[in-house]
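Input/output pair, single chain:
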Amino acid sequence: MILENGLIRTLDPSVPMTRALAIAGDRVVGGVGVHEWALPTPERVDLGGRCVVPGFVDSHVHFLSWALAQGALQLDGCRDLHEVAARVAEAASGLARDAWLLGRGWREGDWQRGEAPHRRLLDAAVGDRPVALVSKDGHSLWLNTRAIETASDSLDTLGTVVERSADGQPTGILRERAAWRFQANAISQPDAHVREAMRMAIRTANARGVTAIHDQDGSRGILPHWQELKRAGLLSLRVWQSLPVSELDAMSELGLRSGFGDDLLRLGHLKVFMDGALGSSTANLIGGGGVELTSRAELEELTRSAARAGWPLAIHAIGDQANRDALDALAATEDVWGHRGLRHRIEHAQLVNREDVERFRQLNVACSVQFSHAPSDRDIAERDWDDRLDGAYAYGSLAATGAVVANGSDAPAEELDPIAGMRAGVVRTLDERPPWRIHEAVTPFQALEATTSAPAWLERTERIRGRLIPGAIADLVVLNRDPLAEGAIKEGSIDVVATMLGGRWVYGPPPWD
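Output:
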């Protein structure tokens, strides 16, 4: 197959652009100077002036959570508690009496100070029906009384954090591990429903140009679902799968290391949580505040054990103290993991003290960020981090050091949409308001690189993915226009025309009008 009459952005510095691309099987076999005789009886695809770039990679997505969220009650944008209650009451009227009402997207940081969610508000809205509402950042869970009663064990067994009122009774708010454990133990959905939701979500991702993801839902038991979808021929994107660090011993006993799998599904990294999140007021901050889920000393021990077993870490760190502790632990253990070539990553890096910005590059630790978080979180960040904003969502500064910056969505916290994510990184606003801290914007090229070649580096597949050069796997996206053209990303005028995975069209095959 020859793609011709368009612009090919290879993302290879030696030949950054070409006018045609030859593909044989699942591989790119040529670029510059491609002619009809480059392949035996080639199929010719007229790009009609369109642009081709490497396939998009979402380097941080909770895929199972995002897939299931499509069928949940949406609470994003609720301006106060009462709007949440009204939406819940309306949704409950159409459900069977004993059915769970599941929702997500509420964020108390968007409400006036002093407004605190409580189970009684949900009780009044739905009566004797179980309700579970996940916060926008995924770090808090709001339950009503009936939902709490479904727990097979006392809430005290869940660990941090179970909020209680002055009389010692639970308010219905669980945070961090308590929230995650309750969801895992008390709320289940049939496998058939889960896999159908994932199948539809894969199709949506392909339509948005996504050819690979770094999935962060390993702790939710997603791996068997991926395996079943792959067996059924329904897996049309590549998966770099996380596992919780609690599985390290089990993986070591089996002799499994990062990279185990095949071209579509591989075990990737071990996930560690240092702290909570901004929206749930659980980010660990220098000087106090937030929640410490893993200490620096604990992370040092985990890093050494993981390195000996051949596993890189993905370290969730939101607050400036959490990021500093993570970097300190990696620096202290570099003698163990450095010579093994492990490519560690810090997830989010939302608030980094200025003294620590350069350390990512020095340690060769990737910044796995989400450009869309900056405009989404701007109001809460200004309110809660007003005394330390200099290091907030400092994507431009991190990229300027030469550190590897990979971009994801953190869906369902934000939407899985690479083009919208790149735009958020470049313009630092997603509404009519002026850009927020525009000096921390990334360039269009940096945004594209963070969404294509940087994630491939994290997977150690940079020689065959993330660039459109001879020998590379033919994962690519056809766009209606060049994303690096003047103003293209800022104008929001880029659309996905077609998506190819390994030489096979998985969305929008030609011919195109």
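The radius of gyration is 23 Å. Confidence is low (pLDDT under 50) at residues 34-38.
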